Amino acid sequence: MAKLANLSLDEAEVDRMATQLSGILEHVDALSTLDLTGVPPTSHPLPLVNLTRPDRSRPSWPLDEVLEGAPDVADNMFRVPPTS
Amino acid sequence: MTVETLGLTAERCVELLDAREVSCRELVEAYLDRIGAHDGDFNAFVRTRRDLALAEADAFDRDGRSGLQGVPIALKDILCTRGEETTAGSRILAGHKPMYDAGAVTRVKNAGMIPLGKTNMDEFAMGSSTEHSAYGVTHNPWDPTRVPGGSSGGSAAAVAAGFAPLALGTDTGGSIRQPAALCGVVGLKPTYGAVSRHGLIAFGSSLDQVGPFALTVRDAALAFATIAGRDHCDSTSVELSEPVRIPDREDLAGVRIGVPTKLLDQGVEPGVRASFDASLEVAEGLGASVSEVELPHAHHGLPAYYLIAPAEASANLARFDGVRYGLRLEEPGDTVVDMYGRTRSSGFGAEVKRRIMLGTYVLSAGYYDAYYGTALKVRTLIRQDFDRAFGDVDVIAMPASPTVAFTIGERVDDPWAMYACDVLTVPLNLAGLPGISIPCGLSEELPVGLQLAGPPFSENRLLDAAHAMERALQFDPVPPRLGQGVA
Amino acid sequence: MSDWEPVIGLEIHVQLNTETKMFCCCENRYGADPNTLTCPLCLGHPGVLPLINQAAVDRAIKIGLALNSQVAESCRFHRKNYFYPDSPKAYQISQYDEPICSGGHLEVDGTSIGITRAHLEEDAAKLVHAGGEAGRIAGAEHSLVDFNRCGTPLVEIVTEPDIRSPEQATRFLSLLKNTLQTIGVSDCDMEKGSLRCDANVSVRPAGATEFGTKTELKNMNSFKFLAEGMAAEIERQIGVLESGGTVEQETLHYDPRTGALRSLRSKEEAHDYRYFPEPDLVPLAPSAELIERLRGELPELPAGRIARFERDYSLPEQYAVDLNADAGVADYFEQVAELAGDPKAAADWVINQPTAVAAVPASGLAGIVKLVNGGTITATIAKQVYGLLEETPDADPVVLVEEQGLASIGGDDELMGMVDEVIEANPALVEQFRGGKDGVVNALVGQVMKKTQGRADARKVQDLFRSRL
Questions:
Q1: For the whole model, what pTM was predicted?
Q2: Which of B328, B381, B416 sits opposite A39 (nearest CB)?
Q3: Which of B123, B301, B346, C363 has its Cβ near the most Cβ atoms within 10 Å?
């Protein structure tokens, strides 16, 4: 899970986290006892549909603002370490 | 003239400014000076913006003002302020200056209110005590050995300690209502969608809402009216069906109050229960009828919340990777994945990591249906419970927190004990309903919060009821140990 | 090879030609300086929320209608979670189990290729691998990210595994490209990346009903390389199976320079995308009115146009298909055909002179056809006139012929005169012809053609020679 979430944890952290997470999941297991047949899921509290915007462009942000605050910039692009 | 800010309401600020009994600058300076003198004890603010605030005040003094113009406000550091550092209580955003203002911030600025600074919070709004901040713990103005609640602990403490008449916070699982209760101030969580989430650094996207802290319900209404309404930058925000009314009714004739007694039997400490019960009697005295309601699934709200919120958070926080902004930690020879791991592990605190892991897990292949999928269905049941209950009552009343403020350090190492603080608040977030917490009494000399909940977009109804209760309860929001206020 | 049947399914990503990106109001434009078409939204800054571009939704619906798909009554967006520097939010807003269009089909060479689904999503940023060897991923020192492309609206079209050869795949893609261009949703330029295609390839014994293990071929940026890559992979899989091995499920990259296939990712490393509904967006429920309005805006589709050309112009199928290589060609052909009143001649010209579409106005080409049909010029001269028109496209062919003196020499006396001259000048050839070598007449005709600079009707001249001799 840590790898999927891109968190590099040391061994002690992994152990502690595992215990804490197991504890949390135990509390959460109570939900599995409920009868949920026919209950639709709610991913959204509001019953809205079709909220879209017109296809009209706005000026983009100036390059210097975009790059300001970036940890590492080269040739006006964001530099990152190699992917492999 | 030195203005006493302890207990000074926003309404009173407006009166003083309108009558020119005090200039804008004098008012803002009074707050800033008090922060300077006393916030060392509480750490409510992460940073203040003295020069900018005074310049804005000077402009009003020079050019004239009206309405809420010139009234100071504090902003939780989860709200983006253009060109001004916004860290969400995290090291991973240290030094980050957003390129734009949050929707709520824009409205506050358009109303002419003057932000005094950004308040402390649990990192990425994950917490109930403001002990999980990268910028230190915030202390409760009623007792500095205790927590102010969280995650908007800084905003709640700022208002309680006379550092600002108004503050904005956010509420995902109770993060406005619970700290309001623990600090003896008013806190309003609007209906989901009533206030723009544009510029609110996301934690639980289907749960987050921005809302005000204040010393009185009328002040909270004023602040809510300023920030509410559809923002075209947020597809999930809506226009209010009726304008916000500043409440003035002082009775509760005809108001039906429902109490989910069974829910309260789980973990509400006796002192809080006693205070809550006493406030119900006051309500009856004002003409309300109090009855029991059933919310059979509400107690499942806590586990459901701790599946949905971390799941959404795990995706929302994935963008903090050190590429475009914020912290980056890199060693020579690192691949980009190494850099991600290093940056995120160092930049995030333990609670955040815990929730990201939990969220990643519950969404992962093979577990979606059992955990996240199940939680979404439980959410439907909880909402249906409320819909049914509101067929019989107008307002549902509960304590906002099962306990009064606990001591710093008491729960920080036991995640589920900390999560239990939210048992009475998360059901409203899951259902998207509005809720307000007002102080209703003391237990162990610490404030107890009365929470009133209503159907979607019933804020006016809640504000009316809360205002009437506030008038009758006569709770003094100035913590005695801080001295005499103006109230 | 004939014992094995290839089974191919395609995943096509189409960049839509909207004015703005999918979820923000930045311009959707190719070729701008790096990071000049960005905003907090497409950069994945904290606190920003996506805003659905209605024009992108409209185009996706049009694509579905053109592919005979079902437009969903209600659909939603999902988050597809994965970390990569080209993904600023570390999730892509896409559609998972509720796509905007499902089902559908497209006829290619009389075969119906099934469409599984078409859905909306946003494009990733562009990653440039710098340092190392010549910009390749392996051995790079670092990468540079340009977010201009990030957030561009995409429609992903997935076909059923109904394609049975690389050639059929390219014909399908050609028709799909033409269809998408015709309905005006994309410029479908593979070089610019506005049309991208991945292939799922497997083989099975001819006549079998079960599918073999499939591999995924990615990132081929031209129809030619796609066909080559698929062919190479089919051959590889057959080789593996025939030698008793099993095909591993993996993702491959085809290198057109070397013809080699390289594994990018194996099954074990497959991503767990942890899809969940996008909480920042509400569902889309296209109304019947919207769908009908969009359907009404669709022009004649290529598949239908091919059939109409065969029918109305009495053209053979292959002609009709070739003329519908793209809408521009088809439009041009029809204009020429109508103006000239001769579809077959127009078809011949357009197919044999594909540059005409861009180089010569339809009226000009039609003029040439009419001049040939009217006997004013020969077929040979026509080519010359065409050449002149290419240089001066606005010229009138009639005027050109007059000015250049290119009209046919058709008068019998004049021609006969020349025939006699040539006969006199070539006694040896005449002997050979009379001696039975019939083909020699062509050489005699050739001489007259040279004398007339091609302005004589070659067949007529031949007849004259034959009558003389």
A1: 0.89
A2: B381
A3: B123
